[in-house]
């Protein structure tokens, strides 16, 4: 078999169905995946409904309807096929579109998944888009959503841009006209909304000596060294998108000099951005990474249907709700980061960790961990543990690291999978970002266990 044949098989089953229920995840990849498939299925004249779940586990299987619809699991399902079997779902009732490690079970569920074919940088939204294109070429406009899903699930991070099938999907968007690919640009988050000095001060990949975490120094460099006027004629701050090519080159040249002077590599300074010309400037919908953040905010605060509505074109009430979710999300993330920095982390030889108890919801601790890492010891992956409000018997574990540590051999997914399975828990994710659930009675000593595994990875 091949990925193309799997995609064709899944598309054929969907096309021949009378009713489809989409079961998807709540993050940016899951929300874009759902929006892609819901629109593709509806355009084919098939009755469709959607269900979002935080995780696919025994307690959430109750949300999967007991009816005669085709159950389309996307951005989940590959690693939880035992739950589908236990539910009594046959191979004729299920298709799976995913990008996570697949599970061996007796039932041969039809699946489209790039991972078994070596496509590690292709998210579920990317595979879903390929299925949608197979259903009907008219769905080329949905490439934009696949780009958001791929970028939101860190598929572009390691290579500072999308590669392989994910990059070809971006080309589809460019061909259609709702994606603009900006090559060899500053590899930094917030190019459409953040004032220039704030943008640079948040740079963490790479960390720029003298600039990262120092907005005042960033402002001085821009004003006095690069000669950049930071305000527009209307008095508002300029953003990166406002700069012309010469201004961008001038700034990046100075940043490169700072990296070189500190003996730091330069290759991660430049990357590729994906701009959406059909969206208004200075909004979080303008580029893939900021759009994905808005969708993550919706999902993490139990509003995935709002994010889906935005993906499907709502720029009215649902979009205003999404903006509210984004502001709230950023506020709580900022509070969590400050809490971690104020309270301090416990450092082991290969890991730093903190337990936040019930202070912050489990849906955002991973994001807060990632932001805090930029201000802590960047050579140690960070682990954050927290309690779950709806399940007092479990502890959520979230981990984040950076590309430098991944290149050195760190694999957070493998570490959490190994450590949690020994305790009867479960883990998953990616090398650079992963999570797990473990029994509450087993939380003591868990950090030491993960630290030992990381030490073995780096040996």
From TrEMBL:
It comes from the Archaea. Residues 19-149 form the DDH domain. Residues 358-455 form the DHHA1 domain. Signal peptide: none annotated. One of its GO terms (molecular function) is exonuclease activity. Residues 189-267 form the DHH-CID domain. InterPro entries: DDH_dom, DHH_CID, DHH_sf, DHHA1_dom, SSDNA_exonuclease_RecJ. Pfam families: DHH, DHH_CID, DHHA1. This is Phosphoesterase RecJ domain protein.
């Amino acid at each position: 078999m091949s990925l193309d044949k799997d995609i064709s098989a899944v598309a054929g089953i969907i096309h021949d169905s009378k009713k489809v229920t989409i079961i998807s995840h709540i993050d940016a990849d899951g929300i874009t995946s759902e929006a892609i498939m819901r629109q593709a299925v509806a355009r084919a004249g098939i009755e469709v409904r959607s269900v979002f779940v935080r995780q696919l586990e025994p307690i959430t299987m109750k949300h999967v309807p007991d009816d005669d619809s085709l159950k389309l699991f996307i951005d989940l399902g590959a690693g939880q096929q035992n739950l589908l079997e236990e539910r009594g779902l046959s191979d004729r009732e299920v298709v799976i579109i995913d990008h996570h490690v697949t599970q061996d079970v007796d039932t041969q569920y039809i699946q489209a998944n790039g991972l078994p074919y070596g496509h590690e940088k292709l998210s579920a939204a990317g595979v879903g888009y390929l299925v949608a294109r197979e259903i009907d070429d008219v769905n080329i406009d949905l490439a934009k959503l696949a780009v958001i899903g791929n970028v939101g699930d860190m598929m572009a991070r390691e290579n500072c841009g999308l590669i392989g099938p994910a990059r070809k999907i971006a080309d589809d968007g460019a061909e259609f006209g709702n994606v603009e690919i900006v090559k060899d640009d500053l590899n930094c988050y917030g190019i459409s909304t953040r004032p220039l000095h704030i943008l640079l001060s948040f740079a963490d990949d790479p960390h720029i000596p003298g600039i990262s975490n120092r907005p005042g120094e960033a402002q001085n460099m821009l004003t006095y060294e690069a000669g950049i006027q930071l305000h527009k004629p209307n008095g508002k701050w300029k953003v990166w998108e406002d700069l012309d090519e010469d201004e961008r080159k001038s700034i990046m040249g100075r940043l490169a000099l700072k990296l070189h002077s500190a003996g730091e590599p330069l290759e991660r300074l430049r990357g590729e951005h994906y701009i959406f010309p059909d969206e208004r400037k200075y909004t979080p919908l303008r580029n893939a990474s900021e759009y994905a953040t808005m969708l993550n905010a919706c999902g993490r605060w139990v509003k995935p249907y709002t994010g889906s509505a935005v993906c499907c074109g709502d720029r009215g009430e649902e979009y205003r709700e999404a903006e509210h979710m984004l502001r709230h999300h950023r506020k709580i993330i900022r509070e969590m980061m400050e809490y971690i920095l104020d309270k301090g982390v416990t450092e082991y030889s290969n890991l730093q960790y903190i337990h936040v108890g019930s202070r912050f919801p489990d849906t955002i601790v991973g994001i807060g961990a990632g932001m805090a890492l930029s201000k802590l010891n960047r050579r140690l992956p960070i682990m954050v543990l927290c309690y779950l409000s709806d399940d007092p018997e479990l502890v959520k574990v979230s981990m984040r690291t950076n590309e430098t540590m991944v290149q050195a051999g760190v694999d957070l997914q493998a570490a959490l999978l190994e450590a949690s399975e020994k305790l009867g828990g479960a883990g998953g994710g990616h090398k650079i970002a992963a999570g797990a659930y473990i029994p509450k009675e087993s939380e003591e000593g868990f950090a030491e266990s993960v630290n030992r595994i990381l030490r073995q990875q780096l040996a």
